[in-house]
Amino acid sequence: MNKGQSGFTIIELIIVIAIIGILAAVALPAYQDYKTKAKISEVILAVYSCRAAVVNIVQPSSKIDVSDALRNSCNFKPTKYVKSSFVDENGIVTVKADEDKLTELTATTNTLTIVPMRTATTALIGTSDGGKTIVGWRCGSVADGTTIPAKYLPSSCRGTY
Length: 161
Hints:
By secondary structure, the protein is α+β, with helices and mostly antiparallel strands. Helices cover 32% and strands 15% of the residues. It has a 5-stranded antiparallel beta sheet, covered by helices on one side.
């Protein structure tokens, strides 16, 4: 009697375990990046009130120089992922993420900047742009002082929106 094979051989099981290990090795880092992006999105959402404060100072103003009004115009309380934030004389919102909660970041890679734009390529100048329209915001630019790695920034925070 010729009996057919029943069950798996040890080699087949080892191959299956190796494939699962390879998939896990690829998926886990991608998932960690995804989780960090979601937390950075929360950081961005947390400072929307600062953006609104800047718009409410600049656009309805009858003064040309709004730099004093912009400086520290946002009374923002720290949140789970935001350590601090401030607005400078040009309306640039600078946020320090809490690197203790966002362990992928360090004290030197935890800064995010959001810059008000007067045109698609020109940033607002607090001393001369009072009463002008803010057409968008530039987010996540290294030139503006952002130190959070680009791979952690959501797509909505990579350029002007």
